Amino acid sequence: MNIKLVLALLIFVFACKEVQKNTKLEKGNYRAELKINDTLSLPFILEVVSEKKLIIYNAEEVIEVTEINYKNDSVYIKTPVFEGFIVAKIEDAVLKGSFVKPDLNRIMEFKAEVNNTRFIINENTTKYDVSGNWAAVFSPNSDEDKYVAKGIFKQHGNKVTGTFRTTTGDYRYLEGVLNGNQLQLSTFDGAHAFLFTAEVNDSVMRGMFYSGNHWKEPFIAKRNPDYKLPDADTLTFLNDGYDNVEFTFPDETGKKVSLSDNRFKDKVVLIQIMGTWCPNCLDESKFYANYYSMHANKGLEIIGLAFEYAKTKDKAFKNINRLKESIGINYPVLLAQYGSASKVKAQETLPMLNHVLSYPTTIYIDKKGAVRKIHTGFNGPATGHKYKEFKQEFDSFVNRLLAE
């Protein structure tokens, strides 16, 4: 089934003029599945609180969904901030349909029914405990796709939560089980649809990472309590011949905004390289929005540079405004690129950088316009202690710049 067919079905479902029984979601917990292939599905739990509100759960993450519309025997569920939506037919408290990301032309078969179990738990069959830190390598046999990560997990009985940190961010809230030596972890947030499966022992896990139904790669991880990722402040830097950052991009009103504008003169400025489609960017934007509200009057400015894969400028700005309204962003978010979120093209847009390795990336600029630090990626709330450590270091560094 291709994207055009799904959208055609969506139009039919919500434009049909036939008089049919109006069916609504019934309250309760549902086990939802996104089909990855003929043998694998990615499970997650959602709770229907009312006809117009449901909640998606991933470990400690709670995602409230209120954009819910009905037509005849079907429901349209729009996840917060991101473009992804679920369209499904309701029959005897069972939902069957699709999860769709139109701008990326991606579709996954969706099903949900009343159940409160993410993964089946085989009691008393846990052979190992994966709690702790793991040094991981994804796509270990590919020079082109190979990258390192750090697994951080907690286990209570069969239940496992945690995440993988990489040099470009983290895989957010993962939740699952360890049955015997078989580990299963998943997350779904409207943008990410991740499934990890692995065979583990006391010191090694070997497995497969699935991103939706469009990408998969092997990984191997070894227990290592002392493992550290490369310093996120050293991965991105100014190219030779550049001593500052310059740009001019439009805001949602069409006004051209430059770093040289009077608004930013003699202020500490953070340049946030991001995208509205990016969950790590969402985590960072929530943190920045709150921090900015408390420090804007102290001489701090933040400028978001959005690199959007939306196919039109209007759609890109619609996504930007939706993000700003959803989490209360009061700093400018400019459209730096649309039609592609290619990091190669992003680097061409910002030629002073050696590369754009990650969304997000933050450039710290002092009151004199000098680049003082470039931080690649973002360690979000799912990383636990690392997130707390980041917040402390961030606040200390920004306050030092403000005091100069």
CATH topology of the largest domain: Glutaredoxin
> Over the alpha carbons, how many angstroms does the gyration radius reach?
22 Å
What are the segments in which pLDDT stays under 50 over at least 5 consecutive residues? none
Mean pLDDT score, rounded?
A: 93
Number of helices: 5
Biggest sheet, spatial arrangement of strands: 4-3-2-1-9-8-7-6-5
Give me the secondary-structure category.
Answer: alpha+beta
Helical proportion, percent range? 10-25%
Counting DSSP E segments of at least 2 residues, the number of strands comes to: 25
- Shape descriptor: globular
The number of domains: 3
Largest sheet: 9 strands, antiparallel
N-to-C order of helices and strands:
HEEEEEEEEEEEEEEEEEEEEEHEHEHEEH
Distance between the termini: 59 Å
CATH class category label of the largest domain: Alpha Beta
3D architecture notes:
Strands 4-3-2-1-9-8-7-6-5 form a nine-stranded antiparallel beta sheet, covered by helices on one side. An eight-stranded antiparallel beta barrel has the order 10-11-12-14-15-16-17-18. A five-stranded mixed beta sheet has the order 23-22-21-24-25. The chain is of the alpha+beta class and 404 residues long. It has three domains: 112 residues, Beta Barrel (Lipocalin); 92 residues, Quinohemoprotein amine dehydrogenase alpha subunit, domain 2 (Lipocalin); 156 residues, Glutaredoxin, CATH 3.40.30.10. It is globular. The chain contains five helices and 25 strands. The model has no long low-confidence stretch (mean pLDDT 93).
